[in-house]
Fold these 2 entries.
Entry 1:
Amino acid sequence: MNLTIDVIGIGAGSPAHLTLEAVAALGEVDAVFAMDKGAVKADLLAARRAILDAHAPGARLVTVPDPPRDRDPRDYRATVEDWHDRRARVLAEAIRAALPDGGRGAFLVWGDPSLYDSTLRILERIRALGVDFGTRVIPGITAVQALTAAHGVTLNRVGRPVLTTTGRRLGERPAGMDAVVMLDGGAAWLEHADPAEEILWGAYLGTGLEILRRGRVGEVGEEIAAEKARLRAGHGWIMDIYLLRGAG
Ligand SMILES: C[S@@+](CC[C@H](N)C(=O)[O-])C[C@H]1O[C@@H](n2cnc3c(N)ncnc32)[C@H](O)[C@@H]1O
């Protein structure tokens, strides 16, 4: 069939994050595949639709219902594996049905495809199901970059490492190491950060809802947690990220 699938990083929230390379790639695609995550994330699907209207008016948007997933499983890895498998199956069908011989499809990936995103892994699974295609990856601006730019800081302090981790695993951080934390469903800083550490927090970065907070965890931590809960309840969803910097 000679198919190509582009995996296009679209940046972390602002349409202005799109690179010229991403815009050029969008102009070449026949169909864009997206998982429909239901009404809660409808805002995110709308953001994708706006990008397509602006840069790929000729492309079909093929939305595929996202298979349900247990959000609090006993065996996290096995549950995610199974979920990716089910996603791969529905997407394989959609790709077969939507792309003509020699066609080019695309997945738009929030931020950059290399960072906490499973699109490239799922494409491997789709290939294993017998759908043959080449892949091209277009890098995008990550939420990490959106956060550091919004706060006007460098990610790493001079000569120091930075751990990239999730809220779930923040407690495993080596003592004293700076960390950038993503995918925090709650407020892990309250439990796992030192009160003297600085938190540089950002939510809905790059969007009209963008909000930033910065201060010592002991001084602003509770307030940010309450604000996060309020925002999530108000908008129905939240995406936030933060940098923790030790006192030393
Ligand atoms: C599944 S990861 C995807 C990361 C993405 N591939 C990237 O390069 O930024 C989703 C997490 O990224 C962070 N994130 C993505 N976009 C964001 C935004 N606009 N504002 C704040 N955090 C964001 C949040 O921590 C969210 O839980």
Entry 2:
Amino acid sequence: HLERQRGGLGFVGGPGETQIEADRRAIDDQLVNLRRQLAKVVKTRSLHRAARAKIPFPIVALVGYTNAGKSTLFNRLTGAEVMAKDMLFATLDPTMRRVEMPDGPEIILSDTVGFISDLPTELVAAFRATLEEVLAADVILHVRDISHEDSQNQANDVAAILSTLGVDENRAQIEVWNKLDQLPDDIAEARRQRAAREEGIHAISALTGEGIDALLDDVALKLEGVRHVEEFTLSFAQGKERAWLFQQDVVTNEEQGEEGFALTVRWTDKQKAQFKAL
Ligand SMILES: Nc1nc2c(ncn2[C@@H]2O[C@H](COP(=O)(O)OP(=O)(O)OP(=O)(O)O)[C@@H](O)[C@H]2O)c(=O)[nH]1
Ligand SMILES: [Mg+2]
């Protein structure tokens, strides 16, 4: 409409300029709004993070480029109804749910904000703050839209952002090749075979459910090596149990009270199971 108004009036200024100004104002309003929303998200995030420091479950985070299918996978794994949409930033505020793994431990699954290339500089800091979730994760699932023509560049961008966030190669990571159903049969088969050959890659369809059981088995395997924090009290009569905990080197704090020893331990699920069997 800018062109039409300017042309039609035959001179610069007047109503044409007003229209441009109005457009600018609308864009400014949108930016202010987005900034305000992000500030709110960042604030609730840090509150949640503080609360989460006390959660005794390992955290598994879904990360990836926008539209890769994170929320769709999240919904499938949790039975939740997080908004999954074909739009940028469908997920603005990360979401967490408790999930019981089949034959495995309970975990907290976290759906995060989708990454995107060339984010406006003024939004980078805010987005980064919402992604600090990822730093608390014990296992990171990097979800990729493997049917997207730009899939490899997207994956590189995500890897770069993860590394600027401070996620290094010590973090357990699984690459999830999603949207297998959207590929022609022969290419889908080639992807399946390559994923099967390579450690740490799973080809799936969040839509049809293909490959999800195998993915979960792998997550459970990765979690076996993950330690988490728990607090409990041992009575004075439980000397054997207490000695075992110290022998395993899992006690991070101990306070003697009237009923016994209040302990903070940091251990794996395997160690916890062994302890319970004592
Ligand atoms: N065909 C197909 N479509 C999928 C699959 N997984 C997700 N989609 C679709 O891809 C679109 C984006 O899915 P979302 O789950 O919202 O993607 P997201 O990664 O959460 O996106 P952001 O929240 O923006 O980061 C939706 O239209 C989904 O229905 C899949 O396995 N196959
Ligand atoms: Mg999403």
